[in-house]
């Protein structure tokens, strides 16, 4: 029987309703949340969001106060992922609980991203702080929110949902010693000569005092720029409005090594980027433009080490900020009823895969990021293998308030209790990763061994799948090149099993006892669902392929009974490369009007 999946085969809205009605999410991960607690019993939530912090270059090992106050007193989630490896799209996903293809905030600036596009796409009327206020919480925020949120457009309109706010604004967001903050409805104030993170800390402590004095449960977001590169702007053109092009990431910006407070400039004089196998490797790796990068020169490597030390030094003020928060929570007597979340918007690479300093890639350095949670019922000193993502944060915050979760969330609450964490590895295995547009060098050195600081062809879809006996990365580039890494044996992602150079190794590789020719169709079908999923189909994609629920993991899907079913599915491919989420460029889609159908056959025969 010949089967072909039509270009649209999803269950987004109807499946979400079925899953919620049937309690399937609760069956998979029992949530020990405070169900409709009294306002006086509801926990407070503090959310610390750094900028570009790495997990794979050991940044957490240089933060002793965070270790003592958060990691030792909470749980470190070592398999937490951002789903788009650049600032603004990642932050939009955090505050909406939706993947970038559903927010359609896919870049730092218009026409595809930034604050104006966040507003234009309706998210200013429908995102986390408004939901928290509806749940009876006071909300406060200080620091960086979005790119292209500027001294010229901050009031057109103001970001909604905050009882108190003090935002960092472009063009000075990343200027460590020349920050511009904008408080509530007031005009922006420049802080030339003051260190940005120290200014931010005092604002955060002030908001904490305000929150406590209001005698209501609260959410406090704190977003320092560290350890982002230092950026000095020469932008002079005042533009405003959701339809205007706000040039906050063009060549009028001068990018340099992150800057620390004066008291930290002497620290870590011998620190170097960890010399892992994928740091400036002797053999090229990856696909598309990454595979064409030449080996870094010694001068480049030495610059990378200086950049690395600047990042570690800049993070020291964040370390002190967190300690100050915990001390003040203790003084107010509310530490035991407060959850503290610590993460970053995206990861970072410096020299891995021969790349200059930057992000925007799908590799583990860029997408696998720190997540630490401390709070009531969270195990102390625990390291969790739970697979979680940024789209899970908003559902987690709402679940802690006792509010109902939204059916259009692409994520689900993060396991917090001991029981949830124990169950999670068998129920959470995948992360969808997506990116559109450019990659940028934040180094003095460019790409391809030259001075070019930008790569414009950096559009891809990727997938991380992690189970008890498998650990995989699969990607499809807009050029329709493919990558596959078996990361238990190749954690540095140096052996692309789908490249001709690795044909011998690929022929010898099996996953769960199956050869790659059986594995690839499963991964591709899963990616086809996730690249256009909505709601429950994002958190439970196997149910879109197998609605009867008899397949919930890759292990289940590899059963030989499904060989023909998967071999005849439409494959992921791009129609062309583009810089934003342009649906005709995206190739086959798995979703159409929320209706499931299989052209030419009865899909139930195969599920």
UniProtKB/TrEMBL annotation:
<dbReference type="GO" id="GO:0018958">
    <property type="term" value="P:phenol-containing compound metabolic process"/>
</dbReference>
<dbReference type="InterPro" id="IPR012083">
    <property type="entry name" value="Arylsulfatase"/>
</dbReference>
<dbReference type="InterPro" id="IPR000917">
    <property type="entry name" value="Sulfatase_N"/>
</dbReference>
<protein>
    <recommendedName>
        <fullName>Arylsulfatase</fullName>
        <ecNumber>3.1.6.1</ecNumber>
    </recommendedName>
</protein>
<dbReference type="InterPro" id="IPR024607">
    <property type="entry name" value="Sulfatase_CS"/>
</dbReference>
<keyword id="KW-0732">Signal</keyword>
<keyword id="KW-0325">Glycoprotein</keyword>
<comment type="similarity">
    <text>Belongs to the sulfatase family.</text>
</comment>
<dbReference type="InterPro" id="IPR017850">
    <property type="entry name" value="Alkaline_phosphatase_core_sf"/>
</dbReference>
<dbReference type="GO" id="GO:0008449">
    <property type="term" value="F:N-acetylglucosamine-6-sulfatase activity"/>
</dbReference>
<feature type="domain" description="Sulfatase N-terminal">
    <location>
        <begin position="43"/>
        <end position="403"/>
    </location>
</feature>
<keyword id="KW-0378">Hydrolase</keyword>
<dbReference type="GO" id="GO:0004065">
    <property type="term" value="F:arylsulfatase activity"/>
</dbReference>
<dbReference type="GO" id="GO:0005539">
    <property type="term" value="F:glycosaminoglycan binding"/>
</dbReference>
<feature type="modified residue" description="3-oxoalanine (Cys)">
    <location>
        <position position="87"/>
    </location>
</feature>
<dbReference type="Pfam" id="PF00884">
    <property type="entry name" value="Sulfatase"/>
</dbReference>
<feature type="signal peptide">
    <location>
        <begin position="1"/>
        <end position="21"/>
    </location>
</feature>
């Amino acid at each position: 029987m010949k089967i072909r999946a039509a270009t649209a085969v999803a269950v987004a809205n109807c499946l979400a309703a079925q899953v919620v009605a049937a309690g399937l999410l609760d069956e998979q991960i029992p949530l020990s949340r405070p169900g409709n607690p009294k306002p006086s019993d509801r926990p407070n939530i503090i959310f610390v969001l750094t900028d570009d912090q790495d997990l794979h270059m050991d940044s957490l090992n240089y933060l002793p106060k965070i270790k003592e106050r958060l990691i030792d007193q909470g749980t470190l989630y070592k398999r937490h992922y951002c789903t788009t490896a650049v600032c603004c799209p990642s932050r939009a996903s955090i505050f909406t609980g939706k993947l970038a293809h559903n927010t359609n905030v896919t870049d730092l600036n218009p026409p595809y991203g930034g604050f104006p596009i966040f507003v234009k796409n309706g998210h200013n009327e429908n995102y986390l702080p408004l939901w928290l206020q509806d749940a009876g919480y006071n909300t406060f925020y200080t620091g960086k929110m979005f790119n292209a949120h500027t001294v010229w457009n901050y009031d057109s309109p103001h970001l909604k949902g905050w009882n108190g706010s003090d935002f960092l604004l472009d063009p000075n967001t990343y200027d460590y010693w020349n920050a511009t903050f904008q408080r509530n409805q007031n005009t922006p104030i420049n802080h030339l000569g003051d260190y940005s993170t120290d200014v931010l800390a005092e604002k955060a402590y002030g908001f904490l005092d305000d929150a406590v004095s209001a005698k209501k449960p609260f959410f406090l977001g704190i977003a320092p720029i560290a350890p982002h590169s230092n950026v000095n702007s020469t932008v002079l053109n005042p533009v405003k409005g959701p339809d205007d092009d706000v040039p906050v990431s063009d060549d009028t910006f001068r990018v340099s090594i992150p800057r620390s407070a004066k008291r930290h400039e002497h620290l870590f004089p011998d620190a170097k980027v960890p010399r892992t196998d994928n740091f400036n490797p002797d053999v090229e790796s990856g696909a598309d433009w990454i595979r064409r990068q030449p080996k870094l020169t010694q001068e480049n490597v030495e610059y990378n080490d200086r950049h690395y030390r600047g990042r570690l030094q800049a993070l020291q003020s964040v370390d002190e900020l967190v300690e100050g928060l915990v001390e003040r929570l203790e003084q107010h007597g509310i530490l035991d009823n407060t959850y503290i979340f610590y993460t970053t918007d995206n990861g970072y690479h410096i020299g891995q895969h021969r790349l200059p300093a930057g992000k925007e890639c799908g590799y583990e350095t860029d997408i696998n990021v720190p997540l630490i949670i401390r709070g009531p019922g969270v195990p102390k000193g625990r390291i969790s293998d739970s697979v979680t993502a940024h789209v899970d944060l908003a559902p987690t915050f709402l679940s802690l308030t006792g509010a109902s979760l939204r059916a259009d969330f692409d994520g689900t609450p993060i396991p917090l209790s001991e029981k949830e964490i124990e169950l999670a590895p068998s129920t959470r295995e995948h992360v969808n990763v997506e990116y559109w547009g450019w990659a940028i060098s934040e180094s003095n050195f460019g790409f391809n061994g030259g001075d070019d600081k930008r790569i414009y062809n950096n559009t891809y879809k990727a997938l991380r799948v992690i189970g008890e006996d498998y650990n995989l990365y699969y990607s499809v580039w807009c050029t329709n090149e493919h990558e596959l890494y078996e990361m238990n044996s190749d954690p540095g992602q140096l052996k692309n099993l789908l490249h001709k150079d690795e044909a011998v190794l690929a022929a010898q590789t099996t996953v769960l006892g199956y050869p790659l020719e059986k594995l690839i169709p499963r991964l591709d079908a899963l990616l086809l669902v996730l690249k256009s999923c909505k709601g429950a189909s994002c958190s439970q994609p196997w149910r879109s392929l197998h609605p009867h629920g008899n397949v919930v993991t890759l292990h289940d899907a590899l059963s030989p009974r499904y060989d023909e079913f998967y071999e005849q599915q439409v494959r992921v491919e791009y129609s062309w490369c583009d810089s934003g989420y342009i649906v005709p460029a995206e190739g086959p889609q798995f979703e159409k009007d929320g209706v499931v159908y299989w052209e030419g056959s009865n899909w139930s025969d195969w599920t």
